[in-house]
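YM 10:42: RND family efflux transporter MFP subunit sequence, as discussed on the call
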Amino acid sequence: MKHKKALIIAGCLLLLVLLAITAIKIFEFQTSASHDQKPTYSIQRIHHTDDLVESGKIVANDTRLLHNPTGRIDQVNVRDGDHVAKDAVLLTVYDQTVQDQVNEAQNALDKAQQGLNRAITANNKVIDQFNKSTDATERETLQETINKNKDDISDQTRDLQAQQTQLTTLKNKVYQSLLAPFAGILTIINDEKTGDPVITINSDERHVQAKVTEYDYTKLANEHPAKITAIATDKSQTSVVRNLSQVPDTTDKQNIATYPFTVPVDGRFMYGQSVKVALPQDEIKLSAKAVVTRDKQLFVWRVNSANKVHLQPVEGTKKNGVFVLTTGIKSGARIVTNPDKSLKDGMRVVK
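YM 10:58: structure's back
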């Protein structure tokens, strides 16, 4: 009985020894494996911040309501939707009031001409009498009359010329034309009361009218590159920002201030068309954890094509866990986003 009990105790002790040896071997294996394993880091390819995208509408650079000359519409030369060149004759009006003035001026001119003709005829008779006279006293008197007549005739001639000029001016106003102030496309509606055409012209030159909020205002400036894409057709064009306002749009009902700006475009876009304005951003943002400090200088661990790391000096600002890069590394480069103290220059990293 005692012998059996001793065997059991010996067996238990042997089992404990074997378990202890096994535990030691497992620990040594894990420790060795952890020493041989390469560190694993997160690697990120950096890029510029996404484009700032705003919505906009295509509008004409100049939209002008044209006012018809006074008078009765005599002839309309255009239709709604027509494209016209600068100075094209859109319509002609006839002014009866001016025509009446022309008639009166013509009658007055005719009478003045008749009066001038009579004065010239009368003076010619005096000249003829002067030429035939041999009496010195009579000739002196006749000469004075001739001189006075010449002065009167000169005055009447000047008055006649002024009346002729006035008549010509009036005649030019009887029929007046409405001209296109610039090249563009016409919109024509009829006045509800008179039925006369009311013409609006939209210039060929056009632009995008868009707005930027106060939060994004510093992300663009005049001459900032822009890509415009029509929502309906996907037609696109590159251009630049113009006329960025420093004054907010007072007609905007939002609680956020918005600032108008324009982008010139060409004829591939239609008036009123909805577009997207993409404004590329030069800014590169990194996780602040990716930036390390060595001797008061900032660095990131840059990863080369062989997956080896090297310290790369950078400059920028940290804010709310984000590092906004100023200089030091370009878009497309790869960096380690979770560096630790064990990371060494030239070390191969595993993503």
